[in-house]
Design goal:
Strand order of the largest sheet: 1-2
Shape: elongated
Helix content: 55-70%
Radius of gyration: 25 Å
Order of helices and strands: HHHHHEEHHHHH
CATH architecture of the largest domain: Orthogonal Bundle
CATH superfamily of the largest domain: RNA polymerase sigma factor, region 2, helix turn helix motif
Number of strands: 2
CATH class of the largest domain: Mainly Alpha
Strand content: under 5%
CATH topology of the largest domain: Rna Polymerase Sigma Factor, Chain: A
Length: 199
């Protein structure tokens, strides 16, 4: 049935929730997406991962295509698939450098009751004496409470997800924000943490 229809009509049916039309589009473009995969390389991933990214681009193309705004569905789909693959590659490259980009130096100055010291000094100053350890634990808890009191509810959510090892992209999707807003929130968090008095 779909073979006799214009492709744009099939896409419109898929947009209206017709599962068979959507399946037809996916099958028709599977080899097209697979061929695009050969042009790219995704760091630390299998070729199937890139294919999945490409198919995600196809789904977006199907969802967002508008005959009034775009010339042909094939041209629009090609652009969406390419963008999705490039976005995945950029994200993978950022993740590769993530430890370097998001780390806090042990030489970072922090204020303590003893005056200004480096973060490394504070972390190395722990004592194995149970009383000292208890006091340190209480200080750490108070420090975490101070951090929490300085953050907005959005920053708390971002920090919580970040500490669980979520990527910028995953946090952005979870919170319905852009990766840029997640990055900005983490930059603000780092500045706030560096200004908090320890001890």
């Amino acid at each position: 049935m779909f073979e006799q229809m214009k492709e744009e009509q099939v896409v419109l049916l898929a947009q209206q929730g017709d599962g068979k039309a959507e399946e037809y589009i996916v099958k028709k473009y599977m080899n097209f997406v697979r061929a695009r995969c050969h042009s790219f390389y995704l760091v630390g991933a299998e070729s199937e991962d890139l294919l999945q990214e490409g198919m995600l681009g196809m789904f977006k193309a199907t969802r967002d295509y508008s005959p009034e705004k775009n010339s042909s569905f094939q041209a629009f789909a090609s652009m969406c698939v390419r963008r999705q693959m490039l976005s995945a590659i950029e994200s993978a490259n950022r993740k590769k450098h993530h430890p370097l980009n998001s780390s806090i130096s042990l030489s970072t100055p922090v204020r303590t009751e003893e005056g200004e010291r480096t973060l490394g000094d504070v972390l190395c100053a722990r004592d194995d004496d149970p009383e000292t350890m208890l006091i340190d634990d209480e200080s750490e808890k108070a420090y975490m409470e101070r951090i929490s009191s300085q953050l907005s509810s959005f920053e708390k959510k971002v920090l919580g997800a970040y500490l669980l090892g979520r990527t910028y992209q995953e946090i952005a999707v979870d919170l319905g924000k852009t990766e840029k807003s997640i990055d900005s929130a983490l930059q603000r968090i780092r500045k706030k943490v560096s200004r908090i008095h320890i001890g």
